[in-house]
Amino acid sequence: MEQELLRILRTLDSPAHLTQAHARLLAAGLAATPRLLPALGVPPNGFTFTFLLRACALLGLPRPCGCVHGQIVRCGFGSDVFVQNALMDVYYRCGGGGAGGVGAARQVFDEMVDKDVVSWNSIVGVYMSSGDATGAMGLFEAMPERNVVSWNTVVAGFARTGDMVTARTVFDRMPSRNAVSWNLMISGYATSGDVEAARSVFDRMDQKDVVSWTAMVSAYAKIGDLDTAKELFDHMPVKNLVSWNAMITGYNHNSRYDEALRTFQLMMLEGRFRPDEATLVSVVSACAQLGSVEYCNWISSFIGKSNTHLTVALGNALIDMFAKCGDVGRAQSIFYKMETRCIITWTTMISGFAFNGLCREALLVYNNMCREGVELDGTVFIAALAACTHGGLLQEGWSIFNEMVEQYNIQPRMEHYGALEGRWDGVIGARTSMRNWGIEKVPGSSLIQVGSEVHEFLAKDTRHERRKEIYETVDGLMALMRHTEQTPWGLFVASIVVIQCLIGQQLCKSNMGKGIFPVVLQLYHAEVAVLMSRCCFIVTTQTRMNFTFVRAGGKDSHWTKWWSQLTVAIIILGALFYLLCSPKLEQGSEAGLLLLLGGAEDSLASAQSSWSSF
DNA sequence: ATAGGGTTAG
Question: Are residue A495 and residue A462 in the same domain, yes or no?
Fold first, then answer.
């Protein structure tokens, strides 16, 4: 049958007959048959290959690129400048952005008979995004002609690496600039944290477009200045979907999830934009943080109705959301529905089960993951180990820990030890010490009364008026901890936290009702376990600890200032004390821990009474 | 075709 049709097709010689035959094949459902389709005789052109190459780039597979390259040469497009430019881009992307990709792209570039500005711009961009600024600048200087895109490519390259000094130099040298050039400077300054500089570029710009405004909104949101972000957002002459997304994620990053949702609702009320995946990811994660079942149901039914494709990011966010509001069954069904998963998907599902106390199920997910041969990272092991500890499955925890080290060659970090509380039991008898110090009475209490006011703290609370400070403090400490892990500075930071907690308790106790301390510090069990295991006592991971210093009444008095100054002084002295006592401590060494314990025990003992009586 | 703003877990 197929042979017969092929024979007939070959005999056709006029376009009209060909069209007729094509129509008949379509009607018979045979047009897509791989051997008949080429016989219809439509020759490829430049567009064929640029689209084909784009498909290769999306797949990121080097092998089809080679085949397509062969076809390009065979069909006589070896010197078509459009096709060659696309080919260069594809070879770079399929090389994974590394040196191999750069080499392949460079080879295409060198072999090109005709090069136009786009070819030069592309190769400069390739060198820039591979991190080779010197190579890029060499090519840039050698360019026979430059247009505004050439200049922008270089500015973008320097801005991406955070080298705003060089970016500025190039920007100032530009013979002419367009909106993109200015916007590159704005976003470059914003990502390097210099909002002032970004703002001054923005103010000097006389062709501000929606991108400039949006970049400024997210710049202010990033440094936590939501008032200015909101003000700019409200005054934007034109908003698009990305602007709304920027405002919503700005609220998310500052833990103001309810306002994120309100902004989303405003956008929906306005009705001009349909939420895209980025919007939904942000909204879902805001719902997850709020843990409100009504919001979660609403957004999930909205997603269901809007027929949105379940991408990896959205799937991950949904799994997290359902798990956080206790519906682990729906979390799991999302997990199964996902066509592609990444390491975050697995991590989220494992922690989702553990979060709901289903630690065996968490381990099943872990086992499935290992069977599927997913490439694992250190983080997924933190989740798996925490699941074991949480469920009291210490033996499983240890065997996973060993697998991690021996089979997957992942260096254990302090978070892994933190997840395995049993680690330190033999060293210091942590549980006993805890009981002795009366620590068990403090955790679990998330209500603190100061004077006549009751301050309530729930997990990841978003309602407290000083939540910005809470999360900034915690985030800052965590960042510092990450930055300084494996060095004595980790101890330094940990000691600050402990001392702050102790002082906070004492201040609360002795100054009820006077207006106490302007910092509210809230830590969760995992972080506390890590910090505390450094400072020689362990917190059971089942118990969430809320350390809070609360200021009552909301009025600043001279007492507040006085206490703040005193506290800062004590913190610095305490930190110095730790530093002097433990300058040569080796992290993780038992001798070091015991030494540290000796130092810490004294200061903790004095605070013991306030812990237990609180 | 080459350059610019927004995207999830621990």
Answer: yes
